[in-house]
Specification:
The complex is a heterotrimer of chains A (about 300), B (about 300) and C (about 290). With about 300 residues, chain A is α/β, with parallel strands linked by helices. Helix content of chain A is about 45%, strand content about 20%. In chain A, a hairpin with a 4-residue loop joins β1 (about 5-20) and β2. The relative contact order of chain A is 0.12. Chain B has one domain (about 1-290). The radius of gyration of chain B is 23 Å and the shape is globular. The chains are: A alpha/beta (about 300), B mainly alpha (about 300), C mainly alpha (about 290). β2 (about 25-35) of chain A pairs antiparallel with β1 (about 25) of chain C. The structure holds adenosine-5'-diphosphate (ADP) and magnesium ion.
Chain lengths: ~300, ~300, ~290
């Protein structure tokens, strides 16, 4: 029977000796954390709070000062545990002299894939992350978003059960960022466990099942979003078509008070900037498409007219 | 096991590919130009001396260019991987640190192989063209001098034979192999040093210093192995370190001996190649251990 | 719709927690492990590795010494100059041939310009870089003992003849010293022996040493047969008849047959007979054909 927890961290600590300061920096205070299999877990906190440190410890890129961690019951660091992990580092860079296809082939070989299986897997992943246009281009010509995509594809190559994504949306435009969020949700749908870190909170809400908030190397709190965010005493009602004049509001308030509400507040509903942005872009894209279609139609018409003229 | 080999091979291949795509081989064009230029420069010397100097120079130039490539490509390898952060994605895969070191080193070895091979081809072409020129000019000289017909034949054949024997001496192959082995040793030393430092410049300088000291390692070894030598404890400790860690580069003077005309047997060449292989294996094992310790 | 909790953690963190965390982040005591076990493994590897390494190196040195490698057999007694030379050669990696050739050209050029001190230092650099090429030792010594010495002898800027002669002598001796050093490193060189012999004969007026050097040259592989007659003639002409006869006897004894055309045995025999009668050697002790 597989262990219920994907990740078990017990007292994991990382300190750095800074000899010239004759001081010790606590990058991560003793940390206990369990992450269940199949959940999307967010590590939140400002820069320098120890998010990357935690991930690097799990991967064995750095050695813990104390404590230990297990991945699916496998002690880290170990080859076995890394077989089940995929990692997308913060601001990933790859070999610039390779193209997208060669990059994935290289990482595939490192992950123990080869032959037909690797070819098939690369096709799948290129399609999954939407990098068809980057296959034959060298990575030196990639945009930030494309690098993030190839990074994600690379992390997924050996079909790991646990994904570690370090700041996956940092520096990516909102469209790309949305794509990455969709990808995380899709991965959850495939039964993967995902740990991602971010210092931008709004994105976390939409995808994370549970989050932990870190500050200066210390885990401050941990829990599901509902646990952390829902204020059980207050209910927000979003309604369309209510009267917005004073008399109308008074009537509504009365109705609510009759249901036991002790205080009632009125605000116009406000959408997030992001959703506005996405709408505007979508609208503009639709317009552009319509415009293209119109221009194309006009061109064909003009063409047919001139060709008709030529034949005369 | 097979997977391990596959990973090492993938790493070696990417290292070679990187060097090739970053136009390291352009340096070989420089080598070719210099080799041709030098053969003209030496044309003031006697004809057999000329071939000898050309041999000496070509082995020397191969060493210099090879050293340059070996030092730069090895010393900058780990720092570049760290700076570009490619190392994080590689070591996050099921790859051992030792596999990373071995793969990367084999990539450098392959690169040095390609470089040595190409330089050898240029070298042999220049050498043989020079030999033909020498033979032609000697023949012309003999024709003009009005030497009796019978002697003329004799002189020309003797000259042709000596010049060709020098230019097509099978010992040249041994020399090339030894030049290659020497470069691989230097790359292995650089590999060890680069696992414990962060500065590529430091690695280059230290490795080169070790290379120089390697030519004098024999004296340190004599002192350490000879109990009658009187030295202070600090000197003795220092000399022991040199004797134990630094390879004996002087033994590669076998290359110079070939140029001087001393007979170097294949047995000796294989002995030196075996020694190089042993030293490299140990150095890479050491580099792997040191690199496993390292925080990234 | 956004909930009201969308906050920036950095700004909204409660003051006391932030302060506590900040203090706890910097500590002055390191209670992690000081060393890890693999350091022991490294030490072990080094020890296991250096023994076969040293053994292999000793074996390689022995085989190279047996093969007569110059770099091993001709270790000069002066370790300091030897180390300087080794450093230079290894730093030049392989370009020493070119550098040596460059300095040799400089020797010729400074000879033309009569810049003697520069010429001497260029000669020294050339021989340092190519110690195993006798040609540089020989030519360098010849430049000093003949060209420089004679130029100094005729240099009227020095009015005193006695001093001019002393300076000439100095340069001849410098040339001789250089060739001697060259011989130490290249004891097999016939040419260098002959050049030094000529120097002794012509410049130092020392026929005995010259004869000895010719004799040494004649014993080396690759020597011309007439070299082996020269010591006898030189010694007789210098009036050292007994020594000349001793030499001829040695030469005679060294060869089993005395019919070799190149050696011109009849001529040698004539010499021997002339000396024997002049020195009144008893018949019984004379050489038998
Ligand atoms: N190699 C190192 N040496 C010293 N301090 C380090 C090292 N790596 C990280 N740190 C420190 O550890 C702390 C945590 O870093 P990190 O985990 O990268 O933060 P983040 O949450 O932004 O990813 C930071 O204060 C950083 O300065
Ligand atoms: Mg980070």
């Amino acid at each position: 029977m597989p262990p219920a927890n994907a990740v078990e961290i017990r007292g994991l600590t990382k300190r750095y000796r800074l000899p010239w300061k004759r001081k010790v920096l606590v990058a991560l205070s003793p940390l206990d954390l369990d992450i269940r299999a199949g959940e999307v877990f967010g590590l939140l906190g400002p820069n320098g709070c120890g998010k990357s440190t935690t991930m690097k410890l799990l991967l064995g890129l750095i050695k813990p000062t104390a404590g230990e961690a297990r991945i699916f019951g496998e002690k880290v660091p170990s080859l076995q545990s890394r077989r089940r992990m995929g990692f997308l580092p913060e601001n990933p860079y790859f070999y610039k002299f390779l193209n997208g296809d060669e990059t994935l082939r290289f990482y595939g070989k490192l992950s123990g894939l080869g032959g037909k299986a690797l070819d098939k897997r690369i096709d799948e992943l290129i399609h999954l992350v939407g990098l068809e246009n980057g296959r034959d281009r060298p990575l030196s010509a990639y945009s930030k978003g494309m690098l993030q995509r190839i990074g994600l594809a690379q992390a997924l190559l050996h079909d790991p059960d646990l994904l570690l994504l370090d700041e996956p949306t940092a520096g990516v435009d909102p469209m790309g960022s949305r794509d990455i969020r969709d990808m995380i949700l899709r991965l959850r749908g495939m039964g993967k466990t995902v740990i991602f870190s971010s210092h931008l909170l709004e994105q976390v809400e939409e995808v994370a099942d549970r989050v932990a908030i870190f500050h200066l190397g210390i885990k401050l709190m941990e829990g599901t979003l509902d646990e952390l965010l829902i204020d059980r005493d207050r209910t927000q009602i979003t309604a369309a078509g209510l009267p917005s004049d004073a008399a109308g509001r008074a009537r509504t308030e009365e109705a609510l008070r009759s249901q036991g509400a002790t205080s009632v507040e009125f605000t116009s509903s406000r959408r997030s900037l992001e959703s506005l942005f996405m709408d505007v872009i979508a609208k503009r894209k639709a317009e552009a498409r319509a415009e293209d279609a119109r221009v194309a139609a006009a061109a064909t018409e003009a063409n047919s007219r001139t060709s008709a003229g030529d034949t005369k | 096991m097979m997977e391990s080999v596959q990973r090492i091979f993938a790493l070696a291949r990417i290292t070679l590919l990187e060097a090739m795509r970053q136009k390291v081989l352009n340096i070989l064009i420089l080598f070719a130009v210099i080799a041709v230029g030098t053969s003209l420069y030496f044309s003031t010397l006697k004809s057999d001396e000329q071939i000898k100097f050309l041999l000496d120079f070509c082995f020397g130039a191969m060493t210099v260019f090879g050293l340059f490539i070996a030092l730069i490509s090895t010393a900058y390898m780990i720092p570049n991987e760290l700076e570009n952060r490619t190392i994080y994605t590689i070591l996050a895969k099921p790859v051992r640190r030792s596999e990373f070191i071995v793969g990367k080193y084999l990539g450098v070895v392959a690169l040095l192989g390609v470089v040595t091979l190409l330089m050898s081809i240029v070298f042999l072409i220049v050498l043989n063209v020079q030999a033909q020129i020498n033979i032609a000019s000697y023949t012309q000289l003999v024709e003009q001098e009005g030497v009796p017909e019978l002697d003329k034949r004799q002189l020309i054949t003797t000259n042709t034979n000596t010049v060709l024997a020098q230019a097509q001496d099978p010992m040249i192959l041994q020399g090339i192999l030894l030049v290659y082995a020497r470069l691989c040793i230097v790359a292995a030393m650089a590999m060890v040093i680069s696992t414990i430092t962060t500065s590529a410049i430091f690695t280059v300088c230290t490795t080169f210093m070790f290379y120089v000291i390697g030519h004098m390692q024999g004296y340190a070894r004599d002192v350490v192995m000879d109990p009658t030598e009187q030295y202070g404890p600090i000197q003795k400790a220092l000399l022991s370190c040199i004797a134990a860690l630094i390879p004996n580069m002087r033994s590669f003077s076998a290359i110079d001996e070939m140029v001087l005309g001393t007979k170097v047997t294949w047995d000796m060449t294989f002995g030196l190649l075996g020694y190089s292989a042993f030293y490299i294996t140990c150095a890479i094992a050491l580099a792997s251990l040191l690199f496993s310790e390292r925080e990234l | 719709m956004r909930p009201a909790h969308d906050i920036d953690v950095e700004n909204e963190l409660p003051e006391d927690i932030a302060a506590a965390a900040d203090e706890s982040r910097w500590i002055s005591r390191w209670d992690g492990p000081w060393h890890t076990r693999p350091s022991l493994r490294i030490l072990l590897l080094l020890i296991v590795f250096c023994v076969p390494k040293l053994l292999m190196e000793t074996a390689i040195d022995a085989s190279q010494r047996a093969a007569g490698f110059h770099s091993i057999t001709h270790i000069s007694s002066d370790l300091r100059s030897r180390l300087t030379q080794d450093t230079l050669i290894s730093i030049l990696a392989g370009l020493r041939g070119v550098v040596a050739d460059y300095y040799w050209r400089d020797v010729t050029e400074s000879f033309m310009r009569e810049d003697w001190s520069r010429m001497r230092s260029s000669i020294q650099l050339t021989t340092m870089l190519q110690p195993n090429s006798p040609i540089f030792w020989g030519m360098g010594g010849w430049h000093m003992a003949y060209n420089v010495a004679i130029a100094k002898r005729n240099d009227k800027r020095e009015p005193s003849l006695a001093r001019r002669i002393a300076i000439e002598r100095y340069w001849v001796e410098e040339g001789e010293k250089l060739m001697r050093n060259g011989l130490e490193i290249n004891p097999e060189s016939v040419d260098l022996h002959i050049q030094l012999a000529q120097l002794h004969l012509q410049r130092l007026k020392d026929p005995v040493t010259a004869a000895k050097l010719y004799e040494q040259a004649s014993l080396l592989p690759g020597a011309q047969p007439f070299n082996s007659r020269l010591p006898g003639f030189i010694l007789r002409r210098a009036g050292r008849e007994q020594e000349a006869l001793d030499y001829w006897r040695r030469l005679w004894a060294r060869h089993r047959t005395h019919t070799d055309k190149d050696m011109d045995w009849p001529r040698i025999l004539r010499e021997i007979r002339a000396l024997e009668s002049k020195l009144n050697v008893p018949i019984a002790e004379r050489i038998r054909e």
